[in-house]
Amino acid sequence: MGEAVPTVEADIAHYKSQMVDSLFARARLLSKAVTAICDDKLRPYGISSTQFALLIAVCRIEPVTRAEIARLQHLNKSTLTRDLKAVLSEGWIEEVRKSANGRSRPVALTRVGKELILNARPAWLKAQVQAEALLGVGGMTTLIDITDRILAYSMPARKSSPVPPALRNGRLISSI
Fold it and tell me: Does residue 2 lie in a domain region?
């Protein structure tokens, strides 16, 4: 007799097991878990982890163009526009006209944005500690190695503001 024809149910059952073990699903789970930790710690300051990460990206190399932020944060244009609109409307960053050329509108932190980073820093560091505990030392080292490689390919070094090493003495060092 002929070979059995797989059923839709059999195919779905097979793919379900593969999806649970997929790299994509695991990376999303990691991202959501760490984001939830950071959002929880930053909530009292009225800022989300996504917005805080954007402020840190601006702080690292300000004034910074939208294109540079998009490369550094791996964001598409619509996501970056939405995120920038939120932090601009809160007054945490502003467009810097004197650094602008005809094609770009660089942004920089405002005084309010700098104060927010300084005030929220203890909460951010607590979130880092909690995330480190979740990942363990081996997980942290691996995650930092991977993200450092991604950053090295996506954002050329700028002489004015080098990105500090992410890991010192087995501890994640905040970039703020």
Answer: no
